[in-house]
Amino acid sequence: MSISRRTLCSIAALALTANVAFAQEWPAKQPIRIVVPYPAGGNADSAARALAEVVGNSLKQAVIVDNRPGASSIIGTDAVSKAPADGYTIGVVSDSHAINHAMAKSPKASEILGAKVPYDAMKDFVPVAGMIAVPLVLVVNPKVPSRTLKELVQYSKERTKGGLNFGTMGTGSPWFIHMHQLQEMTTGQFVDVPYKGLAPAATDLLAGQIDSMVMPVHYAQQYIKAGKLIPIATLGAQRHPLLPDVPTVLESGYTGPAIANYLFFVAPAATPPAIVERLGRELNAALKLPAMKDKLSASGDPYPADSAELAARVRRDIDTYGAVIQKTIK
Fold this sequence. Notes:
Elements: H1 5-25, E1 32-36, H2 43-59, E2 63-67, H3 74-82, E3 89-94, H4 96-103, H5 109-113, E4 125-134, E5 136-140, H6 149-158, E6 164-168, H7 174-186, E7 190-194, H8 198-207, E8 212-216, H9 217-225, E9 230-234, E10 261-268, H10 273-287, H11 290-295, E11 301-302, H12 307-328
Parallel strand pairs: 1-2, 1-3, 6-7, 6-8
Antiparallel strand pairs: 3-10, 4-10, 4-11, 5-8, 5-9
């Protein structure tokens, strides 16, 4: 049986009307849940709670944070993918979202990540809004004699122990990816020393047990000001205001992509577009408030971004990170 063009248009109009009506009622039914796939107390958690308070007041509805850590953020993100697509569940993801998608093709994915990746980063989610950008800086322990990136690369090649000990958060983590990106850009000889988190890696770096690592600027600045760590280069496209005297990798004489970690909000793919747009508008407006910069100061820089921009960034990162993974993980 064929369906006439008029009938198809009527069906589309009814669906649009239902979508608009649903969006007008939202969020009257229940609290909005933000699933954070990381432990309480970290950057993602504290930023999510700060935004939840502001957006909850704006929407006149409770916004609660639900921490679901584990398996390289897969557990919490999978919970978002399986949640009803009604606008009452959104999730926080980071650049690990693209890394996990690219990593899923590796035979060792489950072993490295701690679980299979049961969802598609592009097909099963719709980006809603930005959250925070986490600018990065390459730092060394003061015992390392290098004070510029060129000196550090040369030191890594001349070091009798076989390279520069470089702390990361483990194979497949953003820090592991960034180390290999820097290694390819500079031809430095970096030796991966994996840790289970930023804090234990930083502890060993401060103690001189390892030579170097990449740190969030907001985390590293306290140690840099105290003279306990030496900044070599920032990894972004331009110098960061918190470290105005520290050159970028590009200024240090090397070419390659700007590198930064970031976090953003997603919803299940079938969430009504009108609700995605409203949520995105509210979250991005909160991120642009002057007071929000102070609230997020320990986590990173406010990162307002729309859905299309974020979707393009995820696609780009899947390709970029995927190329690194193919070269380094066999």
